[in-house]
Amino acid sequence: MSVMQTMSDTISIHTVRDPAAGALVEIDAGNRLDVRFSGTGLVSRWEVVDRPCNLVPLAVGRTSFSFLAFRSDVPVQELVLRRTGGVRTGETRVVRVVTHP
Fold first, then answer.
1. What is the pLDDT of residues 36-82, one digit of tens each?
2. Which of 2, 43, 47, 90 is the most exposed, fewest CB within 10 Å of its CB?
3. What's the rounded Cα separation, in Å, for the pair 56 and 51?
4. Which residue ranges make up each domain of the chain?
């Protein structure tokens, strides 16, 4: 007896570029959230200050982040990112994340 399994589900990628402070992002559980910043120069970079526990980091770079989203019972959670180095050091962006089951 042989068992063949086919995968019809795929992971969707939801990309947010240069999110405004307080931006609201809605994503389905099981999908990927990419947050990207442009024009940060050679000296500055972005870092994750606080993230919801249902966003698991997949990749972290100087100006980009990838997370796998899981279901959450909390309706809206906050992903907090801060710029370090460069002229705008200390700039903070809070991205509100809603994860649908």
1. 998 766 778 999 999 999 999 999 999 999 999 999 999 999 999 99
2. 2
3. 9
4. 13-100
